[in-house]
Write a structure and sequence with these properties.
By secondary structure, the protein is α/β, with parallel strands linked by helices. It is built from ten helices and seven strands.
Length: 259
């Protein structure tokens, strides 16, 4: 049974929000919870139309952020992976007083490659759109394989992602298509200098979807932000290297707590 917005909450302390990526759901964070809930009250959210959350009439990036802001704690650290990183960044732009710290994981303000900007080639996104219309289950599986490609633990990573996806209801094809449209069209680069809260950008060195070159570009665009690169991880560093990921995340979050 779905709810307007589903989230799973564990732990005590300051609020920490975890937002999954395209085609996934909140279960992807499960292996991090033991290390985080000792320090924070952690909210793992299903984005609108994913998992147990009902889709909204408007599946735009802005509406996704608005839906989360409406239901989630008034003040929190926001962590977003991939598409979830775009949602978290949009929330930080819309309501900076609500986001005391921003963490983007394997994410980019502009996912599609263009004019020298590194990212996903438009033809790859177009192929996913075409495949989605034909067989959305197979399309999500292909995307999971793409996310883990290059990681030394790729087979294990894909298995974990599959288990997470299957543990919640599958998103509808129109929700997945709306997500692909966001990945193809969204461009938050012109507004990044508006972000004033502490911001940590985390990347996998072996990521084929968000190349490490993006991290270098953003060092210039947002010099006040921090970055962390995981040497042996691809698109899901919190799955490939959970211990190191948790350690870096907790160290940053400690800087964001209200005094």
């Amino acid at each position: 049974m779905t709810t307007p917005l589903y989230w799973h909450t564990e732990g005590q302390g300051y609020d920490l929000i975890l937002i999954h990526g395209w085609g996934m759901n909140s279960a992807v964070w499960k292996n991090l919870l033991p290390g985080l809930t000792e320090h924070f009250r952690v909210h793992c959210v299903d984005l609108p139309g994913y998992g147990y959350s009902q889709p909204t009439d408007d599946l735009s990036l802005e509406q996704m952020a608005r839906t989360l802001l409406k239901d989630l704690p008034q003040s929190a650290i926001w962590v977003g992976w991939s598409l979830g990183g775009l949602v978290a960044t949009q929330a930080a732009l819309m309501a900076p007083e609500r986001v005391t710290g921003l963490v983007t994981v394997s994410s980019s303000p502009r996912f599609a490659a263009e004019h020298g900007w590194r990212g996903i080639k438009p033809e790859v996104l177009e192929a996913f759109t075409k495949q989605l219309a034909e067989d959305f289950s197979a399309t999500v599986e292909r995307f999971m394989a793409l996310q883990a490609m290059g990681s030394p633990t790729a087979r294990q990573d894909i298995k974990w992602l599959k288990e997470a996806v299957l543990s919640h209801p599958s998103p509808q094809p129109e929700v997945l298509q709306a997500g692909l449209n966001i990945l193809a069209d969204a461009d938050l680069r012109p507004r990044l200098r508006e972000i004033s809260m502490p911001w940590l950008r985390m990347y996998g060195r072996l990521d084929g979807l968000v190349p490490v070159k993006v991290a270098q570009e953003l060092d210039i665009l947002v010099p006040r932000s921090q970055r962390q690169i995981f040497a042996n991880a691809s698109h899901a560093p919190f799955i490939s290297d959970p211990q190191h990921f948790t350690q870096e995340l907790l160290a940053f979050c400690g800087q964001c707590l209200p005094s």
